[in-house]
Amino acid sequence: MSDSPPFFDIADVFADPVEPAAFPKSILRFRNQRWAEQVGVGALSDEAWARQFSEFSPLPGNLPEPLAMRYHGHQFGVYNPDLGDGRGFLFAQVRDAAGKIHDLGTKGSGQTPWSRSGDGRLTLKGGVREVLAATYLEALGVKTSKLFSLVETGEELQRNDEPSPTRSAVMVRLSETHIRIGTFQRVMVLGKTDDLVRLVEHVVRHYHPQAERDDMPKMCAALAECVARDVGRMIGQWMAAGFVHGVMNTDNFNLTGETFDFGPYRFLPMSDPNFVAAYFDQQGLYRFGRQPAQGLWSLQQFAAALSPLGETEALAEALRAYEPAYQKSFRDHTFFLLGVVRTELEPDLDFLGKFYGWMTETGAPWHQVFFDWFGGPASEARAAASPIAAQYDDPAFSPIRDVLVSLQPDRPDRLQSPYFQAARPCTLLYDEIESLWAAIAERDDWSAFETKLRDMEALRLALC
User: Fold this and answer.
1) What are the Cα distances from residue 91, in Å, to 19, 451, 454?
2) For 346-359, what is each residue's pLDDT tens digit?
3) pTM over 0.85
4) Which end of the chain has fewer CB atoms < 10 Å from its terminal CB, N or C?
């Protein structure tokens, strides 16, 4: 970067300098070459890459030392002031060819002041799961952080929720920002009004310039509206893609509406509003069907964090942008995944209700249905040859079929891609992840993992 990293301007208040852990090994398991080229590090050899993204020596002209970010957050509805980057840090900020800022943030890079009793490490299985989740979401067109690097580090970790000892790793995530709702909550709770002003101005300057106002209360309302729209768009995409985040705590919402921090995520095998991803979410607070409501609740906490600088009524009004942004995103992304041109809003909503209602009632495989009917009328023959073709003979599907075959295909030439010549789509279900992990854990066999990544790339290219 030719100019200083933007976060450095506020790092004195919002982060703590830390040292990376020293690892016994650096074995490269994944590098995101496509994104590496976009941010200027694609020329690194594998050996140099593994060293750079496990030792974390400063990039030229970038942050002089890693920074563990400070924040608070609501976790399953309970406010927790003892948070912060406990096993990761902001390593660098880079720009792509268009000049857009991207953070390089770590996970598993060692202890920080916020580690509490944790060891600051990441299991290799956890890293593999995150690579798969981010890659699949990107392929499906969902706004998400990108998994940039995964390096196995040679330590044996003890964990209570999986067989131990288990292998360790350090990963790097490429994200638009690691500033989150919880960052704002922290300074509000601490009563640091001047710091809150700095934070608002920083986020507006670098991420939401359209919210710039001469008046601080108006700027806060404009920022709340921008974030509400971005979060609404993200969650609309989640719902169309059948994605269950699992841990929608306020420290897991960033300020640009970008999916990140994949823990016990799942992709739906079939439509189920009550599907829960996290075994510890015993009340179903973050179940699939509740994700839109939880998104709004988290935005309300953001508005509350802005209240020392803003006007309550204006902030509440700003959040009204969330619902239409969510509805439009849900509609648009459904039609994107079906490969058809969207029509008018009201007929669309009626169709969506029938379409997803049929999916829930019949238990049809979520991704198979989208795969079979990609292109609408252009895929009638494909759907008739599907492994689940019998489900389309259900009389309840007739009105849905009538709409699908009446819609205009969007770039039907995409159906000629090799991806759509298969009988089944690329999926990322729990059992698939467990199976490919077992091959790695038992035989150090990465072939299923690599095949899955190739399938995801084929999906991305088919949809783009």
Assistant:
1) 10, 30, 28
2) 567 789 999 999 99
3) yes
4) C
